[in-house]
C-alpha cells in the first residue's frame, strides 16, 4: 500500500514521516520487509534531506496474519467500509477479542471476512472495543498504519463515541451531568472494576433523553476509555444499568444484559481529512424494554 505526501519544510525523511504518524517500527518494516521510500520518484533512505515541496512516497508492506487468531465465519453487519477502515454493528453476546473464556469473538469473525475477501492485510486492528454484552458501533483499522493514525486521535480525544443506556436508581437523576471518578480493579476480581482513588482518571458525560418513572434513557459520551467505565460510573452515582447484574442493575424489566448500545461514532479520516459519522438505531431487546416502560 502506497501513501504520498508533500514536504512542507526542509527536514529528514524520517522526521517528516513521523509527523504523519509513521513510527520507527513502521519504518523498520518498510526497510526490512519489502517496502520502499521514494522522493520525487527516486528511491531514497530515511535520512535523506528533504526540501520544501518534495513529493515523498512510502510503500508499506502487506501485513501477514496472526496465526493464533482463527478465522470463524459469521455474518457481519457492516455499516461503513473503505480501504482503511471498517465499522460494524456489533450484536450483544459476543466478546471483542479471544480470551481463555471466549474464542467465538468479533475479531475471529472479522479475520474470516478479511480472509474470504482476500484482503492484502489480514491482521485485525480493533480501534474501539465493546464489552461482550454491549451492542453497537465498533471501529477497526484495516492496516497497522491506519491504526496508528487513529491512535493519535484517541490520544487527543477527538474520536467521539456516544452510547444509549437505560439506568434506574433511587431519587432522581439530574437532567445532565459529568461523572469524573477514577476507576481501578476490584480487590477480589480480575474482571470487575470500582471507583477508587488508586484508579485511573475517568470522565463520562450524560444527558437524559426520556424518563419512565424511576428509569431513565440517557445519551452518554465517553471522554476516556476505561474498562466497564459507563457501567461503573453509573453504579457509582446510584443508577446502575438495567440488566447489569455485575454492578447491581435491575433484572426485572425484560433485559438480561447491560442495557448499553453504542449508537454514534465520529472521527476524521486522516487520509482525506473528511469527517466520518455513523449512527445506528437501538437493538430489538433494548427497544422492547422501552415500549414496555412507555406502557406503564
From TrEMBL:
Residues of the Pseudouridine synthase RsuA/RluA-like domain: 84-236
Gene3D superfamilies assigned to the protein according to its UniProt record, in alphabetical order: Pseudouridine synthase
SUPFAM superfamilies noted in UniProt: Pseudouridine synthase (SSF55120)
Keywords: Isomerase, RNA-binding
Biological process, per Gene Ontology: enzyme-directed rRNA pseudouridine synthesis
Active site feature: 131
CDD domains: PseudoU_synth_RluA_like (cd02869)
Enzyme nomenclature, EC number: 5.4.99.-
The reaction(s) this protein catalyses: a uridine in RNA = a pseudouridine in RNA
Keyword Protease listed: no
GO MF annotations in UniProt: catalytic activity, acting on RNA; pseudouridine synthase activity; RNA binding
Pfam families in UniProt: PseudoU_synth_2
NCBIfam families, per database record: rluA_subfam
Stated family: Belongs to the pseudouridine synthase RluA family.
Job of this protein: Responsible for synthesis of pseudouridine from uracil.
Record's protein name: Pseudouridine synthase
Organism: Streptococcus alactolyticus
Amino acid at each position: 500500500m502506497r501513501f504520498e505526501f508533500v514536504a512542507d519544510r526542509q527536514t529528514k525523511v524520517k522526521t517528516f514521516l513521523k509527523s504523519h504518524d509513521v513510527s520507527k517500527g513502521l519504518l523498520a518494516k518498510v526497510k526490512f520487509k519489502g517496502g520502499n521510500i521514494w522522493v520525487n520518484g527516486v528511491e531514497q533512505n530515511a535520512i535523506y534531506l528533504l526540501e520544501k515541496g518534495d513529493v515523498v512516497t512510502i510503500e508499506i508492506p502487506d501485513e501477514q496474519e496472526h496465526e493464533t487468531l482463527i478465522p470463524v465465519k459469521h455474518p457481519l453487519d457492516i455499516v461503513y467500509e473503505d480501504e482503511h477502515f471498517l465499522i460494524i454493528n456489533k450484536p450483544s453476546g459476543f466478546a471483542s477479542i479471544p480470551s481463555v473464556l471466549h474464542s467465538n469473538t468479533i475479531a475471529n469473525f472479522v479475520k474470516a471476512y478479511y480472509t474470504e475477501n482476500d484482503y492484502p492485510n489480514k491482521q485485525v486492528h480493533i480501534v474501539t472495543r465493546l464489552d461482550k454484552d454491549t451492542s453497537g458501533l465498533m471501529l477497526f483499522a484495516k492496516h497497522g498504519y491506519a491504526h496508528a493514525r487513529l491512535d493519535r486521535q484517541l490520544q487527543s480525544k477527538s474520536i467521539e463515541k456516544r452510547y444509549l443506556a437505560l439506568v434506574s436508581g433511587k431519587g432522581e437523576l439530574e437532567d445532565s451531568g459529568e461523572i469524573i471518578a477514577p476507576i481501578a480493579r476490584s480487590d477480589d476480581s480480575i474482571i470487575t472494576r470500582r471507583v477508587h482513588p488508586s484508579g485511573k482518571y475517568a470522565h463520562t458525560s450524560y444527558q437524559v433523553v426520556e424518563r419512565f418513572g424511576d428509569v431513565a434513557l440517557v445519551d452518554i459520551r465517553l471522554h476516556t476509555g476505561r474498562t466497564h467505565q459507563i457501567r461503573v460510573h453509573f453504579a457509582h452515582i446510584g443508577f446502575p444499568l438495567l440488566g447489569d447484574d455485575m454492578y447491581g442493575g435491575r433484572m426485572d424489566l425484560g433485559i438480561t444484559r447491560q442495557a448499553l448500545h453504542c449508537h454514534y461514532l465520529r472521527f476524521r479520516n486522516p487520509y482525506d481529512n473528511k469527517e466520518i459519522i455513523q449512527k445506528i438505531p437501538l437493538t430489538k431487546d433494548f427497544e422492547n424494554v422501552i415500549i414496555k416502560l412507555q406502557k406503564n
